[in-house]
Write a structure and sequence with these properties.
- By secondary structure, this protein is α/β, with parallel strands linked by helices.
- Helix content is about 45%, strand content about 15%.
- Helix 2 links the parallel strand 2 and strand 3.
- The radius of gyration is 18 Å and the shape is globular.
- The protein binds zinc ion (2 copies).
- The site of one zinc ion (ZN) has 4 residues, from loops.
């Protein structure tokens, strides 16, 4: 039995609906799925219902953007109470930061004589957590760029003229926010962000696990992070980071996390809730 614990829908920058994503999970014979849309838990209710219909175990989650020692890193939250009021109010703040960033990027593009309309980006994104992929897609759709890659290379990548830095919370704040909503906090794709030197501080802040298996991790990278989880006694997760059809073909099913790791996550959540009852 296998799981995929890193997935996106059109509630952030993925292209699949929760129902389409669950159907792909079923096609790939996955026993458990987690939804980890950026800065939102909106898709979790529909995804939970779709997974139930498909006979798949569902874990409600999110992916938060944070910062540690000046580096951007992503923190996955699992087994979240999606009604938690502080989580929801913080998420609303992150979403307005995202929307303002889109406005700023479009303003910069306009200054560069790329006549993209901000309303076209919001209409295409059609979600509360818009991001750079939506800007790139809107540029292609309006005939202002030949491809998504071209849009990123010329304008949107870090350091390019229309790139706008993101306002981020600290990693410690992200971990605490996830914990107070009953969840486990996991460092996403560390191999992508090269944040090894930050791991001791994250562990100190209460990090529960590391995403050792990811589409962009080589076997060597995965083994490296498995060793680190051993060293710090952290949980192990993994997922495809599937964004639907945005990268040509869906990635779901390409990274298969053995289900035993899901069991360990569930034991950790159960221990956490017993501890909080005794507090
Ligand atoms: Zn990420
Ligand atoms: Zn992701």
């Amino acid at each position: 039995m296998y799981a995929d614990l890193h997935l996106h829908t059109f509630f952030s920058d993925g292209t699949f609906s929760p129902e389409e994503l669950a159907a792909h999970g079923q096609k790939n014979h996955l026993a458990a799925l987690a939804l980890t849309d950026h800065d939102t838990v909106e898709g979790c209710a529909r995804m939970g219902a779709a997974c139930q219909t498909a006979g798949i175990e569902f874990i409600p989650g999110t992916e938060l953007t944070a910062e540690q020692d000046g580096n951007e890193l992503h923190i996955l939250g699992y087994f979240l109470d999606t009604q938690n009021s502080r989580l929801l109010s913080e998420i609303t703040k992150f979403q307005s930061v995202r929307q303002n960033r889109i406005r700023e990027m479009v303003a910069r593009l306009n200054e560069l004589d790329v006549p993209l309309k901000v309303d076209d980006v919001f209409a295409l994104a059609n979600c509360r957590s818009p991001g750079r992929p939506h800007v790139a897609r809107a540029m292609v759709k309006a005939g202002l760029s030949g491809s998504l890659d071209e849009a990123f290379e010329r304008y949107l990548k870090k350091g390019r003229p229309a790139w706008v830095p993101k306002m981020k919370m600290s990693a410690g704040e992200g971990i605490e926010l996830i914990h107070q909503a009953g969840g486990l906090a996991v460092l996403a794709h560390p191999g992508l962000n090269r944040t090894d030197e930050s791991i001791p501080a994250l562990v100190e802040a209460g990090l529960d696990g590391i995403e050792c298996f990811h589409t962009k991790h080589s076997t060597t990278t995965s083994e490296h992070y498995l060793e680190i989880t051993d060293q710090y006694n952290l949980l192990v997760t993994g997922g495809s980071d599937c964004h639907g059809m945005s990268k040509g073909k869906p990635l779901i099913g390409t990274v298969k996390l053995p289900y035993t790791h899901v069991e360990k996550l569930k034991e950790a959540v159960a221990r956490r809730s017993v501890e909080s009852l005794n507090r």
